[in-house]
Amino acid sequence: MEPVSKVDVLIRRLDSELPLPRYAHPGDAGADLVAAADVELPPGERAVVPTGMAIALPDGYAAFIHPRSGLGARLGVTIVNAPGTVDAGYRGEIKVTLLNTDPRATVKLRRGDRIAQMVVQRVEQAVFHEVTDLPGSARGADGLGSTGGFGSAPDLGNNEHSREGV
Ligand SMILES: O=c1ccn([C@H]2C[C@H](O)[C@@H](COP(=O)(O)OP(=O)(O)OP(=O)(O)O)O2)c(=O)[nH]1
Ligand SMILES: [Mg+2]
């Protein structure tokens, strides 16, 4: 297996009792972030949760704050703006806007609970060149469900292509 490429990221703990972000397994894409405070989320409510961490990413990188699938599947907790974008120049505390999508249960999370995962990636900035016509492509302007809904993929013989947006 190819070794995972690594990048050095400076990190400041705003709360020295909390653990640094940690990859649960070698090769994992996301390092878990913990809550720096207790949080109670009634059904359908959201809260901005501090993580107690601030980072300085090298130029050309960004960090993306993704939900944890276990929290989503078990409790219905997700992130409103998933994935959150942490810019290379941001030096403030990383915060996570959690949302309880469960229609009935209040979710209680404790300080130290792992609430999100941070994926550090190389990013590029676009240089926008305005044109009056874009080059053609196989997809063209088809989108937003143009290939059908949850049935078989179009190339498996089910002609869902015409069932627009379903
Ligand atoms: O989940 C997130 C998303 C963003 N941020 C921080 C880092 C990021 O660099 C900054 C701005 O984020 P974004 O650009 O997504 O928010 P905005 O609403 O456009 O705010 P701004 O006007 O400050 O750019 O907020 C977080 O701490 N958590
Ligand atoms: Mg912004």
TrEMBL record:
Binding site for substrate: 68-70, 81, 85-87
Keywords, comma-separated and alphabetical: Hydrolase, Magnesium, Metal-binding, Nucleotide metabolism
Protein name: Deoxyuridine 5'-triphosphate nucleotidohydrolase
Class in the EC hierarchy, top level: hydrolase
Gly residues biased stretches: 142-151
Residues of the dUTPase-like domain: 18-148
Assigned EC number: 3.6.1.23
Gene Ontology molecular function terms on file: dUTP diphosphatase activity; magnesium ion binding
Reactions the enzyme catalyzes: dUTP + H2O = dUMP + diphosphate + H(+)
Gene: dut
Cofactor needs: Mg(2+)
Function text: This enzyme is involved in nucleotide metabolism: it produces dUMP, the immediate precursor of thymidine nucleotides and it decreases the intracellular concentration of dUTP so that uracil cannot be incorporated into DNA.
GO biological process terms, semicolon-separated: dUMP biosynthetic process; dUTP catabolic process
Metal-binding among keywords: yes
Short name of any one Pfam family annotated for the protein: dUTPase
SUPFAM superfamilies: dUTPase-like (SSF51283)
Region (Disordered), start-end ranges: 137-166
Biochemical pathway: Pyrimidine metabolism; dUMP biosynthesis; dUMP from dCTP (dUTP route): step 2/2
Gene3D superfamilies: 2.70.40.10
Domain of life where this protein originates: Bacteria
Species annotation: Actinomadura darangshiensis
Family of the protein in this entry: Belongs to the dUTPase family.
